[in-house]
UniProtKB/TrEMBL annotation:
GO biological process, one term: lipid catabolic process
Superkingdom of this protein's organism: Eukaryota
Keyword RNA-binding: no
Coiled-coil features, chain-numbered ranges: none
Organism: Parnassius mnemosyne
Entry keyword Lipid metabolism: yes
Residues at the active site: S168, D342, H373
Protein name in the entry: Lipase
GO terms, molecular function: hydrolase activity, acting on ester bonds
Signal peptide positions (record): 1-19
UniProt entry keywords in alphabetical sequence: Glycoprotein, Hydrolase, Lipid degradation, Lipid metabolism, Signal
Residues of the Partial AB-hydrolase lipase domain: 40-92
Family: Belongs to the AB hydrolase superfamily. Lipase family.
Amino acid sequence: MAVYKILIILIFNCLTVYASKQVTESVNALLPEDGRLNFTQLAIKYGHPAIEYEVITEDGYILKLFHIPGTKGRPVLLMHGIADSADTWIIRGNLSLAVSLANSGYDLWIGNIRGNRYSRHHVSLNPDEDDAFWNFSFHENGFYDLPAIIDTILNKTGADMLNAIAHSQGNTLFYVLCSTRPEYNSKINVMMALAPICYLQNVPPPLSILIQLSPSLYKLLSDFDINEIGNHNSLLNTFEKIICTRPKIGYAICIESIVFPIIGYDNEELKPDFVPVLVGHFPTSASTKGLYHFAQVGLRKTFAQFDYGNAGNLEKYNSTLPPVYDLNLVTTKIVLYVGLNDCISTIADVAILRSQLRNVVRYIVSPRLECNHLDHVWGEHMNNYLFPYIYDVLKSYK
């Protein structure tokens, strides 16, 4: 029992205690330039200076929205996945989707959801002091963040609709938005879902085991008032940068032993030389409630709002069960792009999603058999096996 308590205290410190500024700067100095630069700096480096906008949601969160101006077609919105940020679309440099689309002249808008490194602001709440700041999941991301981003883009450009490309949780937000605020279907011309996430009942171990353990894990974190994980300045992220940037052993520990078992093994697309860049940007802050909400989806085999338990649900929803998202209300055109080796967005779970969506205009299986959950954004050769499909979709649904 004493060892257990010591372990809990160590985990608590790693998640919640910040490394000193001196330590953080020293560790960041170990990273290559692209691992240290932020989005706007990377955009300048790769030839496409970005404009920054602040977007304020209905419930007071202040989000950072990046704009790389272009003149081709409708505005294109890129939305990242969980514990991620706008950086994910540009950290591959000239091989990244953001740079490729910008080179082709598209008008790019790159969003950030509440809580990540660019959106840790609120009109009244302090993310470092107020637990209420972290009281959100993908529901609030879809119900508040996404519509605020979309409205800002349409207001700034004068366009009546936009195109969207979303990875993982990024496309979950569109299912939430379009089912709870159906009027937004008419503002989205087409949404291309990379690694679609809506159901998680067919994921393999070790993720399936984590899902089963999630109620106990979430309670444990809540008991220690841990509402945020992945903070860029936390001891955990500092250790991650120190360990994962070590030649050979870092790749073996961080990628082959931790990342690949969860997302699917593909060492041809995520090689050791990219890891020092990657750990400078990922993970970024996410709410523990958001992670647990996804686990609930897997446990209950239902795409529904957050489950607070019978009493909590009665108070929140006037029902003992949380409301189920009605995917029949999602009428915007959707393209599903899946990987056969994706251990999070599995073929079986995407099939359930596909059967419930009314307007899936294309279903694409990656021609790369080893394509995993994160190859869509970080894969070294995605310009060969993904980009052609993206350009064809943008051209076909103008």
